[in-house]
Specification:
42% helix, globular, 3% strand, 4 strands, Collagenase (Catalytic Domain), mainly alpha, 380 residues, 16 helices, 4-stranded mixed sheet
């Protein structure tokens, strides 16, 4: 969206509150200082998803937004109802001429504050960006962190060379360097698939953002048997980068290989931040994880000595581990709680609690579980 910079007003400070809606956040957490949430009811799951995507930017980038007084406000209504943007009521945004649309119809803007309408993240929801929150936050990064770097000589040169290559059918992205910056930044951060597309189609742009954001120009790990069209590609690489999952010595990942109870327990405990001790000489490799699981009640209903830890884990057992790990039990059995929370989904044959799972399926379940952690997310 077009850059709009209008000062904060006293009214906005009175009706918005950030400090009360984050759990376990600290003054050092830039996200808790950036995000403003509605005082009225809103979809917390959608809001958390938006916040988690914003967290995909490097923490130091987000901290610099905070230092420069930027706020990111999540809303439920029209952006033109916000005090800073009332002057845009009835005004046609740049690039929307002839569509009959005005700023009243647009779900986000990248000024200060950045405005993001909850539930409108995906392309087609009143905007043409890959992702609303990453695109609009990228505008703020361009303006407030890098002093309008999209207008600098280096970026203008690569914009002229690569905008039409990356967005061949999008005159809006091809016409304005700041829009190209915001959308290519969005793609660079959104996923490994979209980042690899930039690397393949627009290598100068890829190198620019790798340097700007302090990230490697290529993903540091590459699995020989994992192509970027695989359904869990992004999730697997995210888990690998977070350090709780790895591949095999031959360079493969084996995404469709069954996962054992011990392997899944290891993944859960590492994902929760557990730093295991080394097993003793007479112990099995997973003994430290059993010890932690018992201590933290992840293994509340399991018999540690009799359970066949090297056998494939079932969906029901995965549900128990995840629900118990985050103390999510709602008074129903773990399987039903996991379904209610979106951790598990049914198959075409129902919920199939005794079905075993693959490595790819297991990491997807853990990522869904981690998304429910109340750390820097909405608890209001």
């Amino acid at each position: 969206m077009k850059k709009i910079m209008i000062g904060l007003t006293i009214l906005s400070l009175l009706i918005w509150n950030t400090s009360a809606v984050f759990a376990n956040s600290t003054p050092a957490d830039p996200v808790s200082q950036l995000i403003e949430l509605p005082a009225s009811s809103y979809n917390k799951q959608d809001a958390n998803s938006m916040i988690n995507r914003i967290k995909q930017f490097q923490p130091d980038i987000l901290a610099r937004l905070v230092q420069n007084g930027v706020k990111i406000r999540l809303i439920t209504g029209k952006l033109t109802d916000e005090p800073e943007y009332k002057a845009l009521k009835g005004v046609t945004p740049r690039g929307w001429e002839g569509t009959g649309k005005t700023w009243d119809d647009i779900p986000g803007v990248g000024g200060n504050p950045v405005i993001l309408r909850i539930g409108y993240s995906d392309t087609g929801n009143g905007h043409g960006s890959l992702n609303l929150e990453l695109h609009e936050t990228s505008h703020a990064i361009d303006i407030h962190v890098f002093n309008n770097i999209s207008q600098g000589t280096e970026f203008i040169q690569l914009f002229k060379k690569e905008a039409k290559l990356l967005f061949p059918a999008n005159a809006y992205m091809d016409s304005y360097s700041e829009e190209y910056f915001a959308e290519s930044s969005c793609m660079f951060v959104y996923s490994l698939v979209t980042r690899n597309k930039i690397k393949r189609v627009a290598p100068l742009t890829n190198a620019f953002f790798a340097r700007l954001y302090g990230l490697p120009a290529s993903p540091p790990v590459h699995f020989t048997d994992l192509i970027d069209t695989y359904w869990a590609y992004d999730t697997i690489y995210k888990a690998v980068n977070e350090g709780y999952l790895s591949g095999y010595e031959d360079g493969s990942f084996k995404p469709d290989k069954e996962i054992t109870r011990a392997e899944f327990l290891k993944m859960v405990t590492l994902a929760l931040g557990f730093k295991p001790r080394q097993p003793m000489n007479n112990e099995v490799w997973y003994a430290p994880y059993l010890e932690f699981g018992a201590k933290e009640f992840i293994l509340r209903d399991q018999n540690l000595s009799n359970t066949k830890w090297n056998d494939p884990i079932t969906r029901k057992e995965m549900a128990e581990f995840c629900v118990q790990a985050l103390k999510l039990n709602e008074g129903t059995d773990a399987m039903q709680t996991a379904i209610n929370k979106g951790i598990l989904q049914g198959t075409d044959k129902g919920f199939e609690p005794n079905l075993t799972s693959t490595r790819a399926q297991s990491v997807t379940i853990i990522e869904r579980t981690l998304a429910l952690q109340p750390t820097g997310t909405v608890t209001k």
